[in-house]
Amino acid sequence: MDSKHNVLSGYRVLDCSIAMAGPFAAQRLGDLGADVVKVEPVTGEWQRHVSAGGAGGNRINVSFLSLNRNKRSLAVDLKSADGKAALLELVKTADVFLQNYRPGVAKRLGVDYETLSAINPKLVYCSISGYGETGPYKDRPGQDLLLQGMSGAMLSAGRADEPPTPAGQYLVDAVTAYTAFEGVLAALLHRERTGEGQLVQVNMLDAITTLQMQELSVFTVAGKPQVRSAEPHAHVYIRAPYGAFATADGFLILAFPSLRLLGELIGEPSFLTMNDEVDSWAQRDEIFAKTRARLTTKTTAAWLDLFRAHDIWAGPVYGYDELLKDPQIAENGTFVTYDHPTEGRVTTPGFPIKFSKTPSSVARGAPLAGEHSRQVLADAGYSPTDIDRLIASGAVAES
């Protein structure tokens, strides 16, 4: 699908963010057709030089590749007068400016909201921080695992006498990215109605805290404390049995079945007289332990066939290999495959929202640092001579 038919075609985004949350949010906008210009240092954005999982590439590591498709790269030195002037020229025709600098850095660079909105009052300016831009934690590092620990979520699962287990994904970064994406879209809708731009502020601490709407309300409204059990129950606010269990040949997930029915199916007579709404809380450890012992007697496939036949909520525990081979993933078109000029054939997760009239698409893979510097500056009105001068001076770089 040509990008001109995407839902955000015609919008320009200046992405001055680094690492994951900001670039992921900007990539979402690019997936919907926005012209995303990645404004990065002449040496390239930080993520180009730090590879998650040690996964390198030919010229672009997998971390950067995965978070920067559908973007053009302008490599520019914002500490130089010419480099900063080039960015301010781009701001005049931009719709969105996105950054996740440490609090105070944008102002020192002269790219804070007050400065840029004076140049372009219609600008939607999205600022992402770790803990908020004021307050006692504003200068702390906004790193995913640190925020997971602070969020309270780790103490909603697992054994009482064991350290908490972090999420198996960069959860806070991803949730923050989606929160920023949502905020930008809402601000653009407001602008369509009023012509007015605005400042959108998102922070990682609020994003992961508000994600726990139900759990925290159980605590604040009902006064139910987080009490982890001796057994590795999957969530303190869900009745037993609830968690991952070993089988004869692997693992499965079991989610709060009727105790009487479960007892019949797994051969546990003590469950037959238990009350779901009383005993499944009061005897959580006993129920978990007995379920665990019974489930080791058959294979995962055998248990899943039995449970599904009786409408008990159960499912497999996948690794990534099984996930990619799942027929529902294929049916949904969850992953996209495209050819990258330096990295070859690339398969990555796609865009999760489907539009009947304006579907998302991959127009380009992640760019090399400065790959589009000439093109972007020409779009802003710079002449070829001026562009040559900027590159020769080091204010701008090209690949």
Count of individual beta strands: 12
Instruction: Give me the side-by-side strand order of the main sheet.
Output: 6-5-4-1-2-3-12
Ends distance: 28 Å
The gross shape turns out to be: elongated
Count of discrete domains: 2
Class of secondary structure makeup: alpha/beta
Low-confidence segments, given as residue ranges, are none
The CATH topology label of the largest domain is Rossmann fold
Could you list some keywords that capture this structure?
formyl-coa transferase, domain 3; seven-stranded mixed β-sheet; alpha/beta; 15% strand; 399 residues; Rossmann fold
Give a written overview of the molecule.
It is built from 17 helices and twelve strands. The mean pLDDT is 95. Strands 6-5-4-1-2-3-12 form a seven-stranded mixed sheet, with helices on both faces. It has two domains: 3-211 and 333-397, Rossmann fold; 242-322, formyl-coa transferase, domain 3 (2-Layer Sandwich), CATH 3.30.1540.10. It starts with 11 loop residues before the first strand and ends with a strand. Helix content is 37%, strand content 15%. It is α/β, with parallel strands linked by helices and 399 residues long. Pfam families: CoA_transf_3. This is CoA transferase. InterPro entries: CoA-transferase_III_domain (IPR050483), CoA-Trfase_fam_III (IPR003673), CoA-Trfase_III_dom3_sf (IPR044855), CoA-Trfase_III_dom_1_sf (IPR023606). Keywords: Transferase.
